[in-house]
Write a structure and sequence with these properties.
- There is one protein chain.
- The chain has about 425 residues and is mainly α.
- The chain is globular, with a radius of gyration of 21 Å.
- The C terminus is likely disordered.
- The protein has 15 helices and no strands.
Length: about 425
Amino acid sequence: MAEPRSYRHVLSNTQFRNLWAGTTFSGLGEAIGQVALPLLVYDMTSSAALMSVIFVLQMAPRALLSPFAGVVADNLDRRAIMLAANTLRGIAVAFIPFVESPAQLGAIAVLLGLGQTFAMPASLAVLPTIVTKETLVPSLSLVQVTGSITRIVGPALGAAIVGLVGPRPPFWLQAVCYGIAIFWNWRLVLPERVRPSSHAFGSIARNAAAEIRVGFRTIWTTPILRGVCLTEGLWSLIFGVLSITMVVYFEETLDLGTRADFLFGLSAVAMSSGAVIGALSASRLERRISRANMLFLGYLGPLLLVPVVLVPQPATLYILVFIFGVADAWAVISMQAYMAEWTADELRGRVYAIWGGVIAASALVAFSIVGWITDALGPPRTIALTGLIVGLSGPIGLVLTGALRSVLTGTPPDPIRSDTPK
C-alpha cells in the first residue's frame, strides 16, 4: 500500500491524475513556445525590440483581464474553461507556421495570452476541490516537479527542432501538446459545487465589477493572501533580472564569446533542476520544520544571488541558482497550499486570478526597468542588489502584513475537507 503522502498515492486519485496530466502537457506547450516564439520573431525581423513587443502583447491580457478571468472561473464550469482555453491556444499556435508578418504574430500572441489568462485561475482553483487536505502539499509538490521538468525539456525540444528544421515546425509540436491537454481535460470530472443561481455570461459581465471588488477585498483582509501577493510581486524583479541581466552577465561581464548563449542556457537548467529537488523534498521538509517556516525560508532564496557582485565564474553561478531554485520551489508550494486553504472555493478563481494579475503587472514593470538598471549599475551589481532587496523584503513583508502570524496562530476559514471526493 502506498504511503499516504507519496506521489503514488496522490496519483491514485483519478481526477487529480487527469488534472495533472492536462496541466503537464499544456505546460510543456508553453515551455516549447518560450524558446520557439522569440526565435521565430528574431528570424523574421532581426529585432530585439520586436521580441520585447511580442512578449508584452502576450503578457498584457493577463495583466489587464486576470480579475475578470477569476470571476468567470468562480461562476462558470472550470472544466469547460480549461477546455476552451487550451482549444484557443492549440488553434492559435497551429496557425503560427503560416504567418507572414510580425503583426500577425502579435495578434496570435494576444490570443495565447488570453488562453493562459483564463486557464490559470480555473486549473489552480480546481486542484483543492479534488484532493484531500492531507495530500494537498504532495499534490502541489508533484505539480511543481513536473512543471520544473517541462521547463527543462520544453525549451530543449524547441531549440533542437529550430536547429534541425527551422523556427516554424516547433509550433506543430506545441499544438499537439495542447491537443493532448484537451484530451485529459475532457476526462476530468469535478465535484458539484454551489454557484450563483444566475451565471450566464451576460450576467457575469454585468456583475463583474462587484465580484472583482469582493476578490480584492478578500485578499486585502486575509493576511496570508495579502502577504503572498506583495511578496510575489516583488519576486517579478528577480525573474526580470534572470531573464535580461543574466544574459548581459554571460555575454559582457564574463565575455564568453560564442559559448555565452549555451552557458546562459545551462543557468536556466540549473535553476529548474534545483526546483525539481526542492519540490521533491517539500513534503518531508514541511513535516520537519512546518509549512510556515518552509515559506519563510523559501522567500529568503533571493539572497543567494548577492554573491554575484563578486563576479563568479559559471560553475559557481550554477551552484547559486541551483540552490535558489530549491528555495523557489519551497516558497511556491507553501504559498499555493496556504492560498488553497485560506480561500473559500467560491472565491478561489478570483483570488488566483488577481494574484496572477499582480505578478503579470509587476513583471511588465520589472521588464521595463531592469534593462535600464543593468545599463546604469552593470550586471553584477544589479543582480546582487535585486537579490538583497527582494530576499529581505519578502520575509519582512510576511511579518509586516501579519501573514506569518496568521498562519502560525490562526485557523483557515474554509479548510479543505479530509473527505474531499475523489
